[in-house]
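Lab notebook, bench 4. Still working through the backlog of constructs that have no structural model yet. Next entry is a single chain of 270 residues. Request: give me the structure tokens for it.
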Amino acid sequence: MERPAWAPPGIDISVPSVSRMYDFYLGGSHNFEVDREAARKAMEFMPGLPKIMQANRAFMRRAVRYAVDNDVSQFLDIGSGIPTFGNVHEVARAADPAARVVYVDHDPVAVAHSRAVLDGDESAAVVAADLRKPAEILHSPEVSRLLDLDRPVALLLVAVLHFLEDEDRPHEAVAELLDALAPGSLVVITHASYEGIPLTQEQAGGTVDVYRNIRNPLVMRSGAEITRFFEGTDMVEPGLVPMPVWRPDGPVEEEDPYAFSGFAGVGRKA
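Model written out:
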């Protein structure tokens, strides 16, 4: 397999990556054939995966605009993935040119491309770190330089928590991150669930099996389990809802049925 010129040295391009699969679903070009093959297998069971990812990105942009509109202009985006058009720093700065953003990911391709995109940008940075180790993120030089944790921060955990199994203690990781943030901070979450998918659980389970087979288990949690991630915050209206329903820009009834898969929500730390 030929290594593309943009691929960072040292990464195994024979193993699929969830962030590169996500890039493929969104029509990006920074993915390998092994990622495309795994994504196509997942789409055999759930053909609407690209629609889900598009709804996910659209929600993220609305949540970022909501944050800026409510005087939160610092962003910590964990599991940020490969940069695509309309990334957090672009959306935030359209509303507040002084917005500051720290991206966090553990995929070397995502980190390398984020650094290339942000080269020369003094108000945004990327950290190579893992959500499972919140202290490494919070004490990173990039966070220390760019984010004032004594002021409200928007913590983005978009389409990442469902890749942490219960033994990874995801609720504890989120609680540790929130504990370090100032009152008035926001936590922005999307999470996969069998609830809302226009398929039987058995059919959708085929996609879950694809992710398990590539050693990136996809954990489908219930709405009640996802709500636990917001402990210590007050839910912003309309609460935990399907992605298109959260403060929509247009008619919800025009959305693709797959867009309603899973949940999205924003909580404000008291």
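Notes after review: The mean pLDDT is 94. Residues 49-69 form the longest helix (21 residues). Flag for follow-up if needed.
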